[in-house]
## 1
Amino acid sequence: MNNASKTVIEALENVVCHAEHDEGRIGRYFDPAYQQTADGHQLGYRDFVKHMATLKSLTTMINITVKSVIAEGDTVFTHHVVDVAKRQGEKSEFEVFAKFTLSAGKIIRCEELTRMITGDTADRDFATKR
């Protein structure tokens, strides 16, 4: 696994899956110029920080299972499954295909497509919820 792959996997584990919102932790992996396109919706760095804060407020657990990862230079593609437990007890599962771009060891861009496998239809926007 190259360094870019390690950075992306660590970001998924230490930012997305971490139980508490921690903006400092986000900054260790994501560049302030970070841009994300998720299911056609654009998020800048501040929007992404709000998105993470919202997810942490709604959930008790987020777990990611990486099915595959392919890297070439500073570009990393992942196919992963996200399992979510919400505070009211509901559970959801999402399949994600993502392309990450890194610069100077930080993630500067993510383009992703997310598909809900199971869960409440109100959570279909989970990838961009703010």
## 2
Amino acid sequence: MLSKFITPGDKIDLCAVYKSSAAKADEKKRTYYSSVHDILSSDTLEITMPIEKNKLILLPVECEYNLLFYGESGLYECTARITDRYKSDNVYILAMELTSNLKKYQRREYYRYSCSLDMVSRHLEEEEIWAVENKMPYALTQGLPLKKNVIVDISGGGMRFLSKHKYEPESLLYLGFYLPWGEVQKRYEVVGKVLSSRELEKREGTWEHRVEYYGMEKETREEIIRFIFEEERKSRRKEKFV
């Protein structure tokens, strides 16, 4: 079953399964990054130990994790338990045993793709806000002053970007950016709602904003998702040949 969809070298995200509600929220959300080392059977595999800041993360034996695999044919998920830790041919290994069936990952729009893309933004005008909130046909006003930003991750549901200015949470913004499709750069103009904004501790004067798309057409969302997974496939192919 595993070898049909997953191959050595595929990337994995791991997130601990907590049975108790007493676990801290940040612990529940913490994600570790690994890759498939070898597939041993239909329900056992070896993965590389996660590394953070050049240090091995010794995840405890017998703990259970949600695994998200970036397979050649798409995303797959399951839960698995760590059964052993060891070193093999200078590679630090976690032995995993599946505790659920492998299944296709359905929530594609929530997968975030790390990137560095230029973007421009501005607050929506009052008439634009009225049209968007009332789901009326509208055209974004052209020629207004725009601020420069950098998108650092993007998904089918929203994005995170850095800027030298602060937008308040709940603000509705015009967001303009290009996505590369082969040799063509396609422009996207979308509306986003600010979920949060914070000044970076080690970069005074730089603000991180998290935004969700607002009133986005299904076709546009699907294009962004398709772009993300095409870029991920390219990255995985490159890594396998390095």
